[in-house]
Amino acid sequence: MRILVTNDDGINAPGLKVLEAIAHEIAGPKGEVWVVAPAFEQSGVGHCISYTHPMMIAKLDTRRYAAEGSPADCVLAGLYDVLQGARPDLVLSGVNRGNNAAENVLYSGTIGGAMEAALQGLPAIALSQYIGPLTEDLPDMFDAAIVHGAAVVRQLLDKAQWDGGDYRLFYNVNFPPIAGADVKGLRVTTQGYRKDTFMGVEAQISPSGRKFLWIKGGPQHLPTAPGTDAAANLDGYISVTPMRADLTAYDALETLRTALE
Questions:
Q1: In this structure, which of 79, 96, 162, 200 has its CB flanked by the most CB atoms within 10 Å?
Q2: For residue range 183-213, what is the model confidence (pLDDT) as tens digits?
Q3: Is 8 annotated as a binding residue?
Q4: pTM of the shown model
Q5: 233 annotated as a binding-site residue
């Protein structure tokens, strides 16, 4: 099996090492694991692509590359430059430091990398590690992903639906903010929504008197509705959410047609 790995935390991120280990376990001794990851952190870039300017790419080691671009850029670089069109059997994105559940999905570069792979017609899985008070005290905050990551990926490959249609399925996996030994199991979930939690800005004045704005998010440990990703994670479960890039609100179509056509 040939696996392409990327992330949004950057080529030197500890979560990428975790994902590489997962990929090697899945690929097997005769498989290939190729890494194309951002040269610098790209958290929060979503599905951004560097459409208006070029990006530099550098070979760091055997099957290991850093690109000055987003995770989606890295997937494109991997497919059409690094692998020279030799398509991988699977694309893995992560393991992100922090959850990509609920509204975080819309901002996540980790999700963006998996989404681009799906748009390219490839099986793709995004993996993220929820962080909290219990993970901060662990020898490795990625413990849940380390313990369960390969098994979850293998379950998805063996049992999940992998359609080949337009806007094909990809999967979003979040590991709960606890030790791997304490994980209760796996739950298939919908994308949640944290009520009254929004992105915002915080202003600061530099020593030169100029104003700068920091983008900041809201609390990450607010419960979401039962059956959703963040709710499962905070209850100690790994969440798996099937996703597509199609943003059509199908539930509103008939009402809109009745009103406008």
A1: 96
A2: 999 999 999 999 988 899 999 999 999 999 9
A3: yes
A4: 0.96
A5: no
